[in-house]
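Ticket #4471: structure output looks truncated?

Reporter: J.K.
Steps to reproduce: submitted the chain below (97 residues) through the standard prediction queue, then opened the result file.
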Amino acid sequence: MPSADNLNNEDYKMTNIIIPSSVEDRKRIKAAMEEISNSYVRVEAERDFVKEAINSLSEEVDVPKNILRKMAKIYHKQNMADVVSELEDIEALMEAI
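Returned output as attached by the reporter:
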């Protein structure tokens, strides 16, 4: 297999894409993939933090995790009025059926 620096479009038979022939373009793609991967690592770490924070808080204050999770999302989005309105709509529909 040729090295990345010696790669030609003929080295890989692909039907849907054309592999960039420019070494600079390939380096930019690789650098972007590294940054994106690093970003995914940070996202995973933040998700783990949120999960642990909710678990700990639930145990400490005796509020169910699902309620704390919903509260956190509402607090983050600052959309309490929208949530209440949607629940009122659901309540009305449930009563109608």
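Triage note (M.O.): checked the attachment and the full token line is present. Residues 64-97 form one domain.
Status: closed, working as intended.
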